[in-house]
Write a structure and sequence with these properties.
- One of its GO terms (cellular component) is plasma membrane.
- It is a multi-pass membrane protein.
- This protein is mainly α and 308 residues long.
- The protein has one domain.
- 74% of the residues lie in helices and 5% in strands.
- It is built from 12 helices and 4 strands; from the N terminus they run E-E-H-H-H-H-H-H-E-E-H-H-H-H-H-H.
- A two-stranded antiparallel sheet has the order 1-2. A two-stranded antiparallel ribbon has the order 3-4.
- A hairpin with a 4-residue loop joins strand 3 and strand 4.
């Protein structure tokens, strides 16, 4: 069933969009990521303009993240105080990111920026995550007793001022690192149309020292407000939010997030990380190939120009 998307100005199969939304919703529930790192490139691949894909995907992330967060809320694995601090940084970063997005759009360079950002970030994060998760999986499968990683030792996070106690996470650290992490994720949300979970989750574990059990739920909690704010800014300044596209992605995403949360509880953390890293690298490879290989549309564009 074809449906015309007025802002994107393309016709797409409605069931394809529902399926993509459901797939990304499952990932959201399983990994604690908004899923935008996968959905936005998938929208590129089916012909949605990058600027519209970024702005609209931020809207879909709100719903799938909220759905996934509710499941974690019921298990009491959401650190509200930490999430609120991360959100403060995220809102500042998102505002800056939208200003940068608008500037590059006026120069006509925004599509290239979006795709290059994806290749760079997904390549670095996917590579590091894959190496680390394979090592963790190997240690988990070995018969030798494994010492748990020590994350509670003092590091640079504990030496900064403005400390706050985060009871759910069992931390007493400065609020500055969480704000900086939130700002970085906010910029990514505005430019790349992602919730930033693929950076937020590792940062919460390895930089802030949060226990893994509360990381996923807190990440989803942080993503909700930041991506909602990003969507609002894009809608009012760029007019690139396609509501018809957003609604179809929302429906699939909400259903998928509940399924993903159930799947996530049945898999080991190491297995989840390997799967996520593999997906990130796969999407990165496809985007890089699209940038390097000469597009087939060059001929059709030239033909259209000739007729006009």
């Amino acid at each position: 069933m074809q449906i015309y998307l007025p802002i994107a100005e393309v016709s797409v199969n409605a069931f394809l969009l529902l399926g993509l939304g459901g797939l990304v919703g499952i990932l959201s529930g399983m990994f604690g990521v908004g899923g935008g790192f996968l959905m936005t490139p998938l929208l590129f691949f089916i012909g949605i303009p990058p600027a519209v894909a970024v702005a609209t995907e931020a809207n879909q992330i709100v719903a799938s993240s909220f759905s996934g967060m509710l499941a974690h809320w019921r298990r009491k694995t959401v650190d509200i105080r930490m999430g609120a601090v991360l959100q403060i940084g995220g809102l500042i970063g998102a505002a800056f990111g939208v200003v940068l997005f608008n500037f590059l759009k006026s120069l006509g360079q925004v599509d290239l920026l979006i795709k290059l950002s994806y290749v760079i970030f997904l390549g670095i994060v996917g590579g590091l995550m894959f190496v680390e998760s394979l090592g963790a999986l190997r240690r988990a499968n070995s018969k030798e007793p494994v010492k748990p990683p020590v994350r509670r030792q003092r590091n640079w996070v504990h030496t900064w001022p403005l400390k706050m106690r985060f009871r759910t996470s069992g931390l007493y650290i400065s609020v500055i690192p969480p704000i900086l992490v939130g700002m970085a994720v906010g910029v990514l949300a505005a430019i790349m149309g992602v919730g930033g979970g693929f950076i937020m989750v590792p940062a919460m574990i390895y930089i802030l020292g949060m226990p893994t059990k509360v990381v996923v739920g807190t990440s989803l909690f942080q993503i909700i407000l930041v991506t909602a704010f990003t969507t609002l800014l894009h809608a009012t300044t760029n007019h690139t939010v396609d509501m018809a596209l957003a609604v179809l992605l929302l429906i699939g995403g909400v259903v998928g997030a509940q399924i993903g949360t159930q799947i996530g509880t049945k898999l080991k953390a190491e297995q989840l990380r390997v799967l996520l890293a593999g997906l990130v690298l796969l999407v990165c490879g496809k985007l890089a190939a699209d940038l390097l290989i000469q597009p087939a549309e060059l001929y059709s564009l030239g033909t259209e120009g000739g007729h006009s």
